[in-house]
Amino acid sequence: MAQIQQTAMKRPVRAYRLGLFSRLPVNTKISVGSALVLIVILLSICAPWLTPYDPNSNDLMNVLQKPSAQHWFGTDNFGRDIFTRMLYAGRIDLQIGVIAVIVPFIVGTVIGLLAGYFGGWFNMVTMRLVDVVISFPFMVLIIAIISILGPGLTNMYIAIFIVGWSVYARIIRGEVLVVKQQEYILAARSIGYGHGRIIFRHILPNVISPAIVFAMSDVVLCILLGASLSFLGLGVQPPTAEWGSMIAEGRSYIINAWWISTLPGLGIIVTGLGFSLLGDGLAEKIENQ
Known about the structure:
The chain is mainly alpha-helical. 73% of the residues lie in helices and 0% in strands. Helix 4 (82-118) packs antiparallel against helix 5 and helix 8 crosses helix 9 (195-231).
């Protein structure tokens, strides 16, 4: 049982190693990651005060302008300011990263708690369902669901919710199987505590850490997933600014107007690096405690 707990704890760390960045001290990772994430969040929130342009307003007199004092990141093929669109796109991508993680996190945690604690038929049905979901490639299953429901941000959320909960349920269930055999849980049962109090006041605080660490890294995957689906035309629909759709729009101008695709790509890299460093630092900090 102890080996199962250690494996679940280490899974996020092994899954999201950052190459040279993995050698940084734990506190440095958390500090740098938090700073990058905070900068992206503040820039996205303060977008209306940082730029005078409308992200979706066409200006055909300033098409494909190079980066300049007037347009810091240049303009696209419709004359729209790239810096402005990147700031507003950050709102959408951060929203995708957070919402697409919070709902599966909550649902998967509750299901994992109940399956691990009560066992029996509920545990068997839940784990068989998890096995079915995990047996399909994540991206392929998401695309299949969106193809049925139709493109759009709402349908993308639904597809992620249907698939994403399974990983959290599996992590939490594995932790519960270890913790429910501990002496303090047996003592809580012996003095007559109800199942609800034992699960949510005694077990949950001791099994939630691995899921939180995984969720920090999962934000990166959801942002990349949202950008990928938008790039393919299945996610956020034009003219709404989103980093993946901006990259797709700039493909035809990559030689003459490299900034249209390159700068949104850098935005994804910086945001992903911030969340990855933060998640990796938290994982190592918990592992070393």
